[in-house]
Each structure stands twice: as structure tokens, then as C-alpha cells.
């Protein structure tokens, strides 16, 4: 059984999808803990499901690296990132760039969802950027987090056509409809050994 830690900053819709998936006893992963950088409303999903949840605020640390160290320690307390079965850390809506020390501690067992077909439109405004560029197609990517910004190896993608006159909010919502099942599928494949994480031991 693959142990996963999920990191969020907001409402936790991807987290909820993972909680629903792991409620099935046949799903090959379990959520060991949920962490956030703020008092995110999505933490309620974890608490309602009886999953340990914690908040590690950057402002409580002296630097980004120090924040990353505290966050890493909180995850490792739940036996993710340690031992012979190090599990997986899933950034599912964490709205901060993870510091290099944290990335080195967990990558490549550290994945993220991004609302574009990487390498196109990296960064915080991917949906807006796709519309501004006149893209006819965009989508969602699940990728390994490395020390760059949305530059890690791509694991899985799903595409959606951009509709004429569509707003950023409308397009983002349609991307989210693809994002949740794609993330669940990717975690399942990693847990079953059907999808290899580049460089993982």
C-alpha cells in the first residue's frame, strides 16, 4: 500500500477526489497526512475523513528553506519520505513554490498537477496565458516536481479544446474536471508500479 502525503492551499477539490478514491479498499494507496501552508478550507475534507492534517505557515519560519525543512519533518512524522517504502508527496493545489531543499528530500517521489499541457504555459497563470496566446488546445499535466518551475518530467496529460469566447474561469473549471480523475489515475498507476517515476529507487 502506497502511503501518500497531500499538500494543499485552498478548497482541496483534488484532495477530495483522492480521499474518495482511497475510500475504496481496492485502491492501492492511502493518504497518510494532509498539509497546508495556510488554514485552507480543504483541510476540512481531511478532518472529516479522519486523516491527520497540519498547517506549516511560511511566516513562522525564518526563511523559505527553513519552512521547507519544517514541512518535510511534518510529512516524515507520518512515515512518508522515510524508510524502505518512501511513499509519495502530492502537491494538489499548494500555491507556493517548494524550496530546493524540500524538493531534494522527496523528488522524484513528489508530483504536482498543472493546468496546461507542459512544457507550454508554465507558472502561476497557465489558463490565462493559454487564452492570451490564442491556444486552441490546453489541458492538465501531472508531473514530477524538480527545482525548476513546472520543468520536471511529465507523467500524464489530458487535453481539452478551448471554446470560442470562453472565459478564464470557464476554461479553468473544465480543466479541473479532467484534473481530478487524471491525478487519481496517476497515483493508482504509481502505486501499482505501472508508471515509473524517473530516477526513483
UniProtKB/TrEMBL annotation:
Name recorded for this polypeptide: Phosphoribosylglycinamide formyltransferase
Alphabetized CDD domains for the sequence: FMT_core_GART
Family statement drawn from the similarity comment of this UniProt entry: Belongs to the GART family.
Pfam families for this protein: Formyl_trans_N
Catalytic activity: N(1)-(5-phospho-beta-D-ribosyl)glycinamide + (6R)-10-formyltetrahydrofolate = N(2)-formyl-N(1)-(5-phospho-beta-D-ribosyl)glycinamide + (6S)-5,6,7,8-tetrahydrofolate + H(+)
Active site: 114
Pathway: Purine metabolism; IMP biosynthesis via de novo pathway; N(2)-formyl-N(1)-(5-phospho-D-ribosyl)glycinamide from N(1)-(5-phospho-D-ribosyl)glycinamide (10-formyl THF route): step 1/1
Lineage: Bacteria, Bacillati, Actinomycetota, Actinomycetes, Micrococcales
SUPFAM superfamilies for this protein: Formyltransferase
UniProt keyword list: Purine biosynthesis, Transferase
Annotated positions for site Raises pKa of active site His: 150
Species in which this protein is naturally found: Leucobacter alluvii
Keyword Transferase appears in the UniProt entry: yes
Stretches assigned to the Formyl transferase N-terminal domain: 3-187
Gene3D superfamilies from the UniProt entry: Formyl transferase, N-terminal domain
HAMAP family (UniProt xref): PurN
EC number in record: 2.1.2.2
Binding-site list for (6R)-10-formyltetrahydrofolate: 64, 95-98, 112
Amino acid at each position: 500500500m502506497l502511503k501518500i502525503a497531500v499538500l494543499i492551499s485552498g478548497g482541496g477539490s483534488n484532495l477530495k477526489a483522492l480521499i474518495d478514491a482511497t475510500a475504496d479498499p481496492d485502491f492501492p494507496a492511502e493518504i497518510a497526512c494532509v498539509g497546508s501552508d495556510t488554514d485552507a478550507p480543504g483541510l476540512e475534507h481531511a478532518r472529516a475523513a479522519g486523516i491527520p492534517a497540519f498547517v506549516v505557515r511560511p511566516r513562522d519560519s525564518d526563511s523559505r528553506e527553513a519552512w521547507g525543512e519544517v514541512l518535510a519533518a511534518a510529512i516524515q512524522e507520518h512515515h512518508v519520505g522515510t524508510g524502505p517504502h518512501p511513499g509519495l508527496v502530492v502537491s494538489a493545489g499548494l500555491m507556493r513554490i517548494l524550496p530546493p531543499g524540500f524538493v531534494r528530500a522527496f523528488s522524484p517521489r513528489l508530483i504536482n498537477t498543472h493546468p496546461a499541457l507542459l512544457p507550454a504555459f508554465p507558472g502561476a497563470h497557465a489558463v490565462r496565458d493559454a487564452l492570451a496566446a490564442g491556444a486552441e488546445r490546453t489541458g492538465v499535466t501531472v508531473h514530477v516536481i524538480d527545482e525548476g518551475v513546472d520543468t520536471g518530467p511529465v507523467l500524464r496529460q489530458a487535453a481539452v479544446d478551448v471554446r470560442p469566447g470562453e472565459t478564464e474561469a470557464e476554461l479553468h473549471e473544465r480543466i479541473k474536471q479532467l484534473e481530478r480523475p487524471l491525478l487519481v489515475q496517476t497515483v493508482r498507476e504509481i502505486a501499482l508500479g505501472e508508471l515509473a517515476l524517473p530516477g526513483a529507487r
